[in-house]
Structures are given as C-alpha cells and as structure tokens.
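Minutes, project check-in
Item: structure for the 303-residue chain
Input as provided by the requester:
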Amino acid sequence: MSEDIIKETYEKIKNMEIRGAGRIGRAAAKALKEYAIKISHLSDEEFIKKMKEAGNLLISARPTAVSLPNAVKYVLKGLNEDNPKERVIERSDEFIESSLKAIEKIGKYGANRIKDGYTILTHCNSEAAISVIKTAYDEGKDIKVFCTETRPRNQGYITAKTLYDYGIDVTLIVDSAVRYFIKDIDIVIVGADAITANGCLVNKIGTSQIALISNESRVPFLTAAETYKFHPKTIVGELIEIEERDPKEVVVFEDKYKGIKVRNPAFDVTPSKYIDAIITEVGLIPPQGAWYIIEKYFGWLEK
C-alpha cells in the first residue's frame, strides 16, 4: 500500500532506527516525497488530505526533535501553492539538499573555533558536531576527541567509531567521568535537537550536566545546530515536550524488584547562560540571537 512508506518511516523514527535530528528530518522529507509520488493520481483535494494525514503521523513519532515537524511543515507548505503535487516533491528535495549543505557550512564555521592541539569533548551522535570535528582535522589540525558513552542507548559508540575510522585520535569515556576529564578538554562541541527562543538548548540527556561542568571549569561550550532546529512555537510561549522512553532501555529487573521505578528521559534543557555560541549554517550566533533566527526563518506566529 502507498501508506507503507509513511508507516515504515514513522516506526523507524519512533524506535530510533533512524536517529539524529538531521537524519530524522531528511527521512521524513524523503518519505513524504515518495508518498506524494505514489498518490499523485488522486484528485488535488484527496491528495492534500492524505498528505496532511501522513505529515501528522510522522510528526507524532518523536515529540522533542523539532527537526521533524519543521521538515514536515516545510515540505507540506507546497500544498498551499499552485500545482501542489509537484511542489511537495520539489520542496522535499529542497529540504534534503539544504540540510546536507547546512552540515557542511556548520563544519567550516565551527572548525574556526578549534585550534591546533585542541582536545574536544562531544556527547551523543551529532552530524553537525562531527562535521565540525572532521573539518578541523581535514584542515591539518592536530586534535583529540573524547566521546561520552551517552547512556542508555550508547550513541557515543557510533561517534567514536565514526571519528576513529576517519583517522582521529578518540577516547571513549563513561558519562559520569566528564568532570574527572574536563581538565584535559579545551572545548566542548555538541549537537542539538532543538533551540528555544531564549537560546536554551534541548539535547540528549546529560548535555546540561556537561555544560554546567564546562562553565565551572571555564571550558567553552558550543552547540552545532541547523536553523531548522530552532523551535518556532517557543517564541509564543509554548514549551518543548521532553520525551520519556521505555524504562526497559535502562534496565530490566527480575520480578522480585518490579516495584523499583525507572525513569528514562531522552533529553534535557541547557540554560543559555552556559552556551558560548550556537554554530549555524548562517554563522556563529550568541544564544540571545535565537529569537532573530526564529523570527527571520519561521515568522513571528508560526502555526
């Protein structure tokens, strides 16, 4: 059935087979394109109805990563234009291309903050943060990287393997060892799942602790975020829902201990005062500049 691509992508995003804010956004855009092609034989009215239903389903897969609704909304704006079937497909391609170019530009701009001989700390598995690190390495800078495990899903293992395969000196550490090793770190670069209007960072759980430790130790803390990760609805006061995932991702107790409660939040919020800069494809901005990005790219009252 034509809906299979939407349901399949929904499940992969929900179950974290597809993970990372940028990858999630591009996967949603690609699924909408393929779905649009398959149902292009429908009348415009029925086509628009089906595409909106598909978009709503995709958005519901992960409540925190704003790249998902922003990608869907970008693509489906084509429904309001002449030739909606063609425009949805074109806008899908536009989003994917701009997303990939954004990663490249972020790498270039962020690498300017990395000096020869630096040791970098990163958390989770961020395309944007990895782009910064790889670009600095490609520029001939002698760098080392510390990666956190990023429990409970251990996304840091992916980052460590990726950087090692690229030829970069990598050390993997447990999440709770960040303060122990911070004396060896020159700069922290992480990704972002969302940026709020007041410049706060929503990112993988544990990020806020790293930012606090970095601030205490006078180590610069930067986040790499494409502009489509800025959350437009926060400018009118809406809060970002923090996803809590299945406790079984953390531990499965035997029946004797089934009364033990387990909490598994996937993200936390880092206050803007702990962030030195946000690296975007339009340049480095202070956290206070988040309002400008949202207003410029999404409009004051984005619905």
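Outcome recorded: Strands lie at 119-122, 144-148, 169-173, 187-190, 194-195, 201-204, 221-224, 267-270, 277-280, 283-285.
No further action items on this chain.
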